[in-house]
Design goal:
Radius of gyration: 18 Å
Oligomer: single chain
CATH superfamily of the largest domain: Clavaminate synthase-like
Helix content: 10-25%
Number of domains: 2
Mean pLDDT: 94
Structural class: alpha+beta
Number of strands: 18
CATH class of the largest domain: Alpha Beta
Bound molecules: fe (ii) ion
């Protein structure tokens, strides 16, 4: 039986799942088929959905336990495991942090020893122009690295610390000392085998990867910029142009993503987000 159809979206990653209504609970068989599609395609888009936060939570939980967002301010009041991704503050003004948030290439939870395996966004209000999310294929980027560069990064480990990126502090400055103290540097392999497929990919983050173990900061920052240039090459990226009712689901271990940051901050951009642990 066919539960849905798959439609490529014109980039090396990014596949649309057509004819599947996520507002209804999926049967185990339909969900298994979706899981297979997700293993083959690390970015799945679903259009024209209507999802209340609790229904989004129920769908997200099928993939694994939901990890609440780190900032309590953005949590949904009735469904706190779901967070808002918004540039609108509580008084209806522009939330400047929300507008530029996550516009550097990253994967979620890079600062953590237990990061999410997948995440999902649901578009509610979107800017008329721009406001997209970009996704890049990190395994394909590794396969296409020049041999000398690949050899140079073999065995290296990233050092990740909340809010400390290769270009300096971002989120870090806004942290209260109590929250600042919660985070410790975490080492991870720069080349990471995907926990399910075993396929190796580049694994770093331009928001929270502070550097490379044993390497001077300037040299590490330059190396990460060089690797990013390969990851973010136009022909390795899917740009998702949001419409209200879109759901995008992605594999955190196979991709990097970012807020394309290409919209006027005064235009409302409101989405719901779920992050799922393995
Ligand atoms: Fe993110």
């Amino acid at each position: 039986m066919t539960y849905f159809n798959e439609q490529p979206l014109g980039a090396p990653i990014g596949t649309e799942i057509v004819d599947l209504d996520l507002s209804e609970p999926l049967s185990d068989r339909a969900f298994a088929a979706l899981g297979e599609a997700f293993a083959r395609h690390p970015v799945l888009a679903f259009r024209g959905q209507t999802l209340a936060a609790d229904r989004m939570s129920a769908f997200a939980r099928r993939f694994g336990p939901i990890m609440a967002g780190v900032d309590p301010k953005y949590r949904h009041p009735d469904t706190p495991e779901i967070s808002f991704l918004t540039n609108v503050d509580q008084d209806g003004g522009v939330d400047q942090f929300g507008a530029r948030r996550a516009s550097a290439w990253h994967y979620d939870g890079s600062f953590s020893t237990a990061p999410p395996a997948a995440a999902m966004l649901y578009g509610i209000e979107l800017p008329a122009i721009g406001g997209g999310t970009e996704f890049a294929d990190t395994a394909r980027a590794l396969e296409r690295l020049p041999a000398a560069l690949r050899q140079r990064i073999e065995g290296l480990q990233t050092v990740n610390h909340f809010g400390l990126g290769p270009e300096g502090r971002d989120y870090y400055d806004g942290l209260t000392p109590e929250r600042w103290g919660q985070y410790r540097p975490v080492r991870k392999p720069l080349i990471l085998a995907h926990p399910k497929t075993g396929r190796p990919g580049l694994s770093f983050c331009m928001i929270h990867t502070a550097g490379i173990a044993g390497m001077r900061h300037g040299e590490a920052a330059e190396l990460l910029r060089e690797l990013l240039a390969h990851v973010a090459q136009t022909d390795n990226v899917y740009y998702h142009r949001w419409r209200p009712g879109d759901v995008v689901l992605w594999d955190e271990h196979a991709t990097m993503h970012r807020n394309a940051g290409d919209f006027p901050p005064a235009q409302r951009r409101i989405m719901l987000r779920a992050m799922m642990l393995p």
